[in-house]
Amino acid sequence: MLEQIARVMFWLCVGEVAARSGLLPLPAPVTGLILLYAELSVRGKLPDDLGVLADRLLQFLGMLFVPAGVGVIAYLDILKTEALPILAAVIGGTAITLAVTMTVASWLGDATAKSPAHESFPHEGALPDADA
Amino acid sequence: MQTLSQILADMAWTGLAEKPVLETGATVFAFLAATRISRLGGNHPLLNPTLLAIVLVSIGLEATHIPYETYLRGADTIHFMLGPAVVLLAVPLFRQRAVIRSSARLITVALAVGLPVGILSAVSLAWALGASPRTILSLAPKSVTAGIAVGISEQIGGLQTLTIVLVIMTGITGAVLGPIVARLVRVGDPRVVGLTMGIASHGIGTARALQINEVAGAFAGLGMGLNGVLTAFLLPIICRLF
User: Fold this and answer.
1) Which of B49, B68, B83 is where one domain is finished?
2) Are residues B113 and B59 part of one domain?
3) Chain A residue closest to B88 (CA)?
4) Interface test with B, best of A53, A64, A81 (most B CBs within 10 A)
5) Domain definitions of chain A by residue range
6) pLDDT tens for each residue of B110-127
């Protein structure tokens, strides 16, 4: 397990070096995600411990946003004075995105795709209730 | 007479004021309580545990007059875990690599449409209704999973904390509207519905898609992951153009 924690921290640190040196315009954890995915693809299999670590930590991913989210009390004024544009963007924007994407994707994306009912893709772990 | 700093030093000595354990503990308990409340309400999307926990902690801070900065210093241990957690999102994505390959065309089309429409619809609506530039920048990554959205927001000059709350609001909106919109536009394919909900409303939408069925859930997780990574790539570049 320690090896897997080290693996995650290693790719995270590489991501941070890339971000701080201005090499990549990406948040360090995203670079880490991509590099870990690349490493797993090269290996071709997922170390058991890493799967356990991911499942455990991602189980309460929602909690990890709480400290930063609480900071919104400092911005309640913004939320109040700009309530209309914010609500329009969040609710209207999301509704538009859903409608347009579903329509176009089912229209253009379907031509060659097979029905998933006949496929047996490995479905060990759908994403956990990742929250946000 | 004791100076303020002496009083604070005394409190630190007695161990309550400056030890991070209090804020960390309060956050864990708030989230635990929020999870229970959410479960009591049948995991309704509006009872999002993260949002409930934020409200609970905020009420606690207001009541005890603890400034946010003090709280954040204490709860930093939890905040820190966000980085490793985002890296670990590679694991569920890797588990779905076969799905990615078998539905490559559908996934490409959905992302090519959903990613830009998600950003542009939010940004243009906010801009047209007179939002400040900082609010618009905080809104831009609203469809992205929070761990990644926070990083993007910081990079393009938005407010991280505002982005988190907007991300959660977007997730809840997508989770509630997703199935309704699917009926309205007459799309029944669970792959399309799931993928779209993941792209438009990240993890909260994914959790809702999982309730539709497993296929919708798997595609939603995929949409969330790919949309997050690609937006992190593209949004800073787009912002530099303007």
Assistant:
1) B83
2) no
3) A54
4) A64
5) 1-59, 64-120
6) 999 999 999 999 999 999
The answer on B133 and B63 residing in a single domain is no
Amino acid of residue B35: T
**Pairwise CB contact (< 8 Å): A127 & B229:** no
Please state, in angstroms and rounded to a whole number, the distance separating the CA atoms of residues A61 and B92.
Answer: 13
Q: Which of residues 89-148 of B touch A (CB under 8 A)?
A: 89-99, 102-103, 105-110, 113-114, 117-118, 121-123, 125-132, 134-135, 139, 142-143, 145-148
Using an 8 Å Cβ cutoff, are B177 and A94 in contact?
yes
Which residues of chain A does B187 touch, with a Cβ-Cβ cutoff of 8 Å? 102-103, 106
What six digits make up the tokens of B14? 């007695």
Q: Say how many C-beta atoms besides its own lie within 10 A of residue A83's C-beta.
A: 10
The pLDDT value given to residue B86: 86
Which of B89, B125, B164 is nearest residue A89 as measured by Cβ atoms? Answer: B125
Work out how many domains chain B is built from and give that number: 2
Q: Tokens 């909260």 belong to which residue? A: B204
Give the Å distances, CA to CA, from B140 to A67, B17, B133. Answer: 21, 37, 11
Same domain for B78 and B113, yes or no, is no
pLDDT in tens, A40-51: 999 999 999 999
Candidates B58, B96, B177; nearest CB to A70: B58
